Amino acid sequence: MFTRDTSITAALPVYRANGTVMAADVEALYTDAPARSMIVVDPDFDGYMAELSRGLNTILARTGTGVKKIAVILNADSLDEAELGGLSTNGASLRAFPRGETQAALAWAQD
Predict the structure, then answer these.
(1) pLDDT tens across 52-102, in order?
(2) DSSP structure class, residue 99
(3) Does residue 101 contact residue 72 with C-beta atoms inside 8 Å?
(4) What is the pTM of this model?
(5) In what order do the strands lie in the sheet with 2-4?
(6) What are the chain's domains?
């Protein structure tokens, strides 16, 4: 599931992914389609990274949604799984950042 987190920044929407997340949950989250946002994958994330990636890539592939950039923060040991699922550490519109690089993720998402 996703919860809104206002403690990180007010500059763009930040959502925490925890528990089980399916691609349909991601698509439902982005019905309002913020142009730029950040998702923080909590340590208790119980879903498949591939589901999260698939949902995010589906949102970005839809024309007319207005979504331009999504930064995803996750544990460094999850980066390989994220890459296999379609999240990249150097993506143009969707980029994974290791936990601890929140400021870099914010700067990238706002650029």
Answers:
(1) 998 998 888 886 778 889 999 999 888 888 888 888 888 889 999 999 999
(2) T
(3) no
(4) 0.91
(5) 2-4, 14-19, 36-45, 69-74, 94-98
(6) 2-110 (3.40.50)
